[in-house]
Design a protein that fits this description.
Strand content: 15-25%
Number of helices: 11
Number of strands: 22
Strand order of the largest sheet: 16-15-21-12-13-20-17-18
Bound molecules: guanosine-5'-diphosphate, magnesium ion
Helix content: 25-40%
Distance between the termini: 10 Å
Shape: globular
Mean pLDDT: 86
Largest sheet: 8 strands, antiparallel
Low-confidence stretches: none
C-alpha cells in the first residue's frame, strides 16, 4: 500500500485519470494512468485539487515482512502458479471454479472442516496449479491494495452468448494494473447462442487479441457445464506458467498471504493462505497483521491434515490468535515474543489510523479502499 496508481488516485478523488495526467503534465511530469504516483506527486495533486491527504509511513505496517525480505540466491526451484478467475457477473466464474475443483480435486478425505476453503490446488501433467477460490474484483483488489500480489495469472471469463460487459473491462484493467498475464476463457460454449468470434472481436478492440489472429493472448472455449475445453485451459495455464519461470526457495522460512479467514467452531480462527516463498510447517511461529501464533495444524483444501506447505501452494492454518484480514501477509518469525510484538505494533498502527480517519484521508487508506 505504499504506492498508488494514477487511475486509482483519480477514482478516489472522483476525477478522470486524464485530469490527473494533464495536471502532472503541466507540472512537467509525464505519466500514464497506470503509473505509480510518488509521495511528492500526491501532495502536489492534493494541493491542486484542494483535498487533504496525509502520507503515512506504510513501512512500519510491514516491519515483520521487511525483516524477511532479502532472498537467498541459488536455491530457487520451480513453484506452482497461482490463478485468479475474474469476469462479469453470471459469466460463470463460480461454475468454472466448481467444475475444476470437483473434477480434479480428490474428495472423501475431509478432515471435517466446515468452512469454505478459499483456495485449492489441482494436479495436471505432474504439476500443481493453485486456484484462488474467491472470485471477483473485490478479493483481487483488496489483496493488491495491501501489497499482496499473490496472483500470477488472471483468467478472464467471458460468456460466449453475452460478450464483453462492463465488469469484463474492469477485470482487464485490474489485471493490467497488476501486470499479470491474462488468459481468456470463453465460457458457455455449450449454448446454442454461443458466439466466440463476437467475443474475440470485442476483446481485440480492447487490445486483447487472440494468438490465432496474430495477437499475444491465449483464448480457449470452455463450458463449465460439460467440461469442454477445461483440460486445454489447464494446459495453457501450465504453458503460461513455464514462460513466467515462477520460482521460489522452499528451503527458507515461509512467507504467505491470507486469502480469507474466519472463526471455525472447535478450531478457533482459521485462515486460508497461499505460501509465496519458503515452506510453512506445523510448529512455526507466525504473524499475520494483528494475528499471531504457533501453527497448531495445517490442512489442505479438503481439510486433511498436512505437515507443511510449499511455495505457490494453498492451505488452511490453525493456531492464530484471531481472524486475520484477507490480503494480510503472514511471515514466520523467530519467537513468540517477536510475533506478539509485531502484532501489537500492527494493532497500534491500525488504531492510530482509525483515530485520524475522521479528519483526514490517509494515503494508506486511499490505497486500502481501491
Ligand atoms: P458468476 O457470477 O460469474 O460466478 O457465474 P455463475 O458461475 O454463478 O454462473 C451464472 C449462471 O450461468 C448459472 O446459472 C450457471 O449455471 C450458468 N453457467 C455457468 N457456466 C455455464 C456454462 O458453461 N454453460 C451454461 N449453459 N451455463 C453456464
Ligand atoms: Mg460467482
Amino acid at each position: 500500500p505504499e504506492e498508488i496508481r494514477v487511475y486509482e488516485f483519480a477514482e478516489m478523488i472522483n476525477k478522470q485519470p486524464s485530469e490527473i495526467i494533464s495536471k502532472l503534465f503541466m507540472l512537467g511530469m509525464l505519466t500514464t494512468k497506470n503509473d505509480f504516483l510518488d509521495k511528492d506527486a500526491i501532495e502536489i495533486l492534493a494541493d491542486e485539487f484542494g483535498i487533504e491527504v496525509e502520507t503515512v509511513n506504510a513501512q512500519e505496517e510491514f516491519d515483520y515482512v521487511k525483516a524477511y525480505d532479502d532472498d537467498d540466491e541459488g536455491e530457487l526451484q520451480e513453484r506452482a502458479p497461482v490463478i485468479t478467475i475474474m469476469g462479469h457477473v453470471d459469466h460463470g466464474k463460480t461454475s468454472l471454479l466448481d467444475y475444476i475443483r470437483s473434477s480434479r480435486v480428490v474428495h472423501g478425505e475431509s478432515g471435517g472442516i466446515t468452512q469454505h476453503v478459499g483456495a485449492y490446488m489441482v494436479h495436471k501433467n505432474n504439476k500443481n496449479i493453485t486456484f484462488i477460490d474467491t472470485p471477483g474484483h473485490e478479493a483481487f483488489t483488496q489483496m493488491r491494495a495491501r501489497g499482496a500480489e499473490v496472483t500470477d495469472i488472471v483468467i478472464i471469463v467471458v460468456a460466449a452468448d453475452d460478450g464483453v460487459k462492463p465488469q469484463t473491462k474492469e477485470a482487464i484493467e485490474h489485471a493490467k494494473a497488476a501486470d499479470v498475464p491474462i488468459i481468456i476463457a470463453i465460457n458457455k460454449m455449450d449454448k446454442e447462442a454461443a458466439n466466440p468470434d463476437m467475443v474475440k472481436t470485442q476483446l481485440s478492440d480492447l487490445g486483447i487479441m487472440p494468438t490465432e489472429w496474430g495477437g499475444s493472448h491465449e483464448f480457449v472455449g470452455v463450458s463449465a457445464h460439460t467440461g469442454q475445453g477445461i483440460e486445454e485451459l489447464l494446459e495453457i495455464i501450465l504453458l503460461q506458467a513455464e514462460i513466467l519461470e515462477l520460482e521460489a526457495n522452499p528451503t527458507r522460512d515461509a512467507k504467505a498471504v491470507v486469502i480469507e479467514s474466519s472463526l471455525e467452531k472447535g478450531r478457533g480462527p482459521v485462515a486460508t493462505i497461499v505460501v509465496q516463498n519458503g515452506t510453512l510447517r506445523v510448529g512455526d511461529t507466525v504473524v499475520a497483521g494483528v494475528a499471531y501464533g504457533k501453527v497448531r495444524a495445517l490442512l489442505d483444501h479438503a481439510g486433511k491434515a498436512i505437515t507443511s506447505i510449499k511455495p505457490g501452494e494453498p492451505g488452511v492454518i490453525v493456531g492464530l490468535s484471531e481472524v486475520a484480514e484477507a490480503g494480510e501477509k503472514l511471515v514466520k518469525v523467530e519467537s513468540d515474543k517477536a510475533a506478539r510484538e509485531y502484532a501489537q505494533k500492527r494493532h497500534d498502527y491500525l488504531r492510530q489510523k482509525e483515530l485520524s480517519r475522521s479528519t483526514k484521508v490517509t494515503l494508506d487508506e486511499l490505497s486500502q479502499r481501491i
